[in-house]
Specification:
The protein has 187 residues and is of the alpha/beta class. It has 7 helices and 11 strands. Helix 1 runs parallel beside helix 5 and helix 5 crosses helix 6. The chain is globular, with a radius of gyration of 15 Å.
Length: 187
């Protein structure tokens, strides 16, 4: 079974964090939320408190197939300030493993050099944090190699379904989209 870790810090965006968790779990992927706060509880940008599956200090990332960063402010800034997370992202990327970030969080990947010479999207305005070699596309979802980025809250569902397809395939994702009425929405 695929293993994914999503890192949440105080100020995270709820939809961008929880839609991928829900969709990946429905698809049979073992995804764990990891608190970056020193507590198992993390408060979102809109005052919703979530209990994470584990804390950063207890996370063993060697078995990770993918690492995810939700956006939100100041959540993305808080993620970017965490040296251990930035080092884990760099190591994961160097191993050629998958990484995803949405909304403001691609700035964390940019600061780590992970978006160098790649196409990426983000919430408009956060492309200012991209290095000169990164091409900002403004797409809802952008894939380039082992990296996927999403624009913002509205991109959460297509972003999460695309990530799920890496692990269970397109046909199984289409079935889930139908069961969740997403296919009807997009028709």
């Amino acid at each position: 079974m695929a293993k994914v870790y999503e890192f949440i810090a105080n100020g995270f965006e709820e939809v961008e964090a929880l839609a991928p968790v829900d969709i990946l779990r429905r698809g049979g992927v073992d995804i764990k939320t990891v608190s970056m706060t020193g507590s198992e509880y993390v408060e979102s940008s809109h005052g919703v408190t979530v209990k994470a599956d584990l804390q950063w200090e207890d996370a063993e990332l060697s078995d990770a197939d993918m690492l995810l960063l939700p956006g939100g402010m100041p959540g993305s800034t808080n993620l970017n300030a965490h040296e251990g997370l930035r080092e884990a992202l760099k190591k994961h990327h160097a191993e050629g493993k998958r990484i995803g970030a949405i909304c403001a969080a691609p700035m964390v990947l940019a600061q780590c050099g992970i978006l160098d010479n790649k196409k990426a999207t983000c919430s408009p305005g956060f492309e200012q944090y991209f290095n000169a070699s990164t091409t900002y596309t403004g797409e809802l979802v952008q894939e380039d190699g082992n990296v996927i980025t999403g624009e913002g809250p509205a991109a959460s569902f297509p972003y999460a379904y695309r990530i799920l397809s890496y692990f269970i395939g397109e046909e199984a994702v289409k079935d889930l989209q139908t069961k969740m009425q997403y296919a009807h929405l997009m028709a």
